[in-house]
Amino acid sequence: MIKISIISKNFIFLDKSFNSRGEAIEFAAQKLYDAGRITDIQKVVAGVWEREKEFSTYMEGGIAIPHCKVEQVKATTIVIIRNDWELAWADQQERADLIFLLVVVAQKANKVHLKILAELAQAIMDQEWIKGIKTATDPEMVLKQLEKFNNYKIN
Amino acid sequence: MNIVAVAACPTGVAHTYMAKKALEDAAKQLGHQIKVEAQGALGIENEITKSEVEAADVVILAIEVEIAKSYRFKNKPKVNLPINTVIKSPVKVLEKIEAKLKSQADQ
What is the ipTM of this complex? Predict the structure, then answer.
């Protein structure tokens, strides 16, 4: 039984020193696998690259939101990685040091979880909110900022 | 302008809702009326009604996948845009559309 929710301190990683986006995503996938939230690291990582092929998930402001919805995801989860330096995304112009990785259950995803993701997507566009994530000094602070979803109701 | 728009992205979990917010915020800033329907993993949200389509000057389709109920927009002026363009520069997008509609009206 997976008890922790879609957002948890266990999936907030600050002050990392990855050298490529691939390294960061594989690290996250390993953590998700260890926690039993995905069943296959390679398939999930491949799902993320498949989605990137459609169009880059890089956003203005050094942010990227790679994601995938594949059957190897057992529990929808938000992973946050803050790297100490910017990593090249789809090309050298796209440089991100704040990564929101979203893995989403493919079939019958929990509606509440999908709503949280939709709200997160809107929060990411709010520079004030992002500032809170970028300047947080520990995972607890990131979590607090993340939970301000009530301000971003989608309807 | 009176605008209706549909946002839809491949996975339907993030960009759909980003585009919705981007368009709503930009329309508010520029003083346009807008209704943005999201077609994502949650299904159709904020669905555009028939009378809203009729009243609209233009339909913006910020879609990367085929959408449901596209027949509603038959015979309406439509603008198709990559969803990322709408997210990145929504104000510019609306200004361009307004200029285009105006120039057409002048002809």
Answer: 0.88
